[in-house]
Amino acid sequence: MAHLLGAERLHLEFPTRTVFDEITLGIDEGDRIGVVGRNGDGKSTLLKLLAGRLEPDGGRVTHRRGIRIGMLDQADAVDPGHTVAEAVVGGIEEHVWAGDAKVRDVIGGLLADVPWQAQVASLSGGQRRRVALAALLIGDWDVVFLDEPTNHLDVEGIAWLAQHLKARWAADAGALVVVTHDRWFLDEVCTATWEVHDGIVEPFEGGYAAYVLQRVERDRMAAASEAKRQNLMRKELAWLRRGAPARTSKPKFRIEAANQLIEDEPPARNPIELNRLAVSRLGKDVVDLLDVSVVYPVTDAAPDAPDEKTVLHDLEWRIAPGERTGILGVNGAGKSTLLGLVTGAVEPTTGRVKRGKTVKIATLSQELAELAEWSEQRVSAVIAEQRTSYTIGSGSKSVELTPGQLLERLGFTNAQLSTPVKNLSGGQKRRLQLLLILLAEPNVLILDEPTNDLDTDMLAAIEDLLDSWPGTLLVVSHDRYLIERVTDRQFAILDGHLRDLPRGVEQYLELRRQDSGGRGASAERTSGGRVASAEGARVSRPEPAGASGLDTPPSGATRPPITAAPALGGAERRAAEKELSSIDRRLEKLQAQIAEQHERLARHDQSDYVGLGKLGDELAGLEASVAELETRWLEVSEALEG
């Protein structure tokens, strides 16, 4: 591999601390490097040093002659006086850039919903960020530095960016260095990871999952002072090992020692126990949305355009105690409106919202307005006004923590307890906001883009805390890893309907591609296109994989017309309702058995291939039974509705 650039004995000091102390590293062709570390440890500073935007106090950065370096940093400013077209393609003639497939792909992937001739000054902060990213990506660079490129991108945009970066260069050409808290993106794009901590840069092989595996091994051999971080990463590793095998199949380093660490690790989250505890705290009724529609008036519509917009249409959703649900959808699809219906901030145009008597809802919003009243107070004083203790878990496994212990668990040091709230960093304020919400002991928690301003370590700590939280959890986030990590079920808002996603985020992306013909469709077309089926309008039971609506007929073929089923008589209807109830009970038992089987697989000796194969066959049999029952559930439901 040809060498592109290197750093030799870099030293950098700020007035209050040493950022880097004698670090030496290099970047070769073919490198795809993810940079992780705690907020404030110097990740963005490292990129600026390597890109030549910041001079070190000692040492030097060397570049290969003629190398072309492109960088997107968090403070990139696009000239507000330019149009989007001028900012992205400059003075290049339209017939020139329009004939370049790479430029068309970038514009379609990032700027589909941004008016091409609009002034940059009229755009939102997120749109300006995407304009800056698009302007960078259409260029030809040998090395690309990206600082938090996934900010302001939705799930589709992040998936597109990952695919673009993987296809941008040949395997042994170009180099990428990216700072991001999006752990799925790190796993998808990067083949190496640099951890910035304590004034050094420590290299690891592989993406985020591989980094976690090696870090657990490193922490296992570290001093006793590292025990707390080690325990946290053990649990994170246990989650990764229960996920897709491909995540940990690429690393070439020894993993036996790390496997021993999680051999007896308990399940990261026991859904049955948490659901039982949630029922005792909540009662059987949480929030039911019954045939709800929300229509907003359009005040600035064109003369021939409709004067109102239907955001949600005939939506039915019954939220269960202990349910952990992720909500997906493009910007403007209605996610905030849906959350507003749950909290009571939005009233339905038609239908009704039914809330349980014991429901206590709290929202971790994107804004930090909840902290405004305490801005002048020290953190310790704010905590002293709240509860004196907080209990997590249940029964013999319950643990009582003081607010100070919770603060420590969320990464606060003793010195920070005397810091005024207004002087905290964005990530620290975010953690304090979550702590204050948990101390109020809600039983329904809504997380609206909770990953803002948080690094990967703190995200893992918050996920660990939520594992033992026994309430109903609703999460809206573009962070794919977080959605898959803390929720057990995902829904998508498509064409104003709530669509169940048995296969999770991947199914959502397939549906979006099917609807829009790719990432290049405009936002208005994507949010208004027909995706959800009639069955998707009402959410009660996950659909089987074969009924997801993704299968397409062969070329030239047409689907048979759908005819209404004859109405059932009284006796037949009672029999069908009885069968439906029986299927529900059987599905609950099978889901519990599947969860137990996953736990057995996670605990089983990974070198015992025969035993693993037997457990895998048993799991496949259980999942096949679930698919058959779900198919029958749909058939009986359709007969009842007919």
Automatic annotation (TrEMBL):
Coiled-coil features, chain-numbered ranges? 573-632
Q: Which domain of life is it from?
A: Bacteria
Name this polypeptide is given: ABC-F family ATP-binding cassette domain-containing protein
**Which CDD domains did the record assign?**
ABCF_EF-3
A Pfam family hit: ABC_tran_CTD
Region annotation Disordered: where it falls in the sequence:
512-573
InterPro entries referenced in this protein's UniProt entry, alphabetically? AAA+_ATPase, ABC_tran_C, ABC_tran_Xtn, ABC_transporter-like_ATP-bd, ABC_transporter-like_CS, ABCF_ATPase, P-loop_NTPase, Val-tRNA_synth_C_sf
Q: Which UniProt keywords apply?
A: ATP-binding, Coiled coil, Nucleotide-binding
Question: What is the species listed in this Swiss-Prot or TrEMBL entry?
Answer: Agromyces mariniharenae
The chain positions of domain ABC transporter read: 5-223, 287-520
Give the SUPFAM superfamilies listed for this entry.
Answer: P-loop containing nucleoside triphosphate hydrolases
Record-level Gene Ontology MF annotations: ATP binding; ATP hydrolysis activity; DNA binding
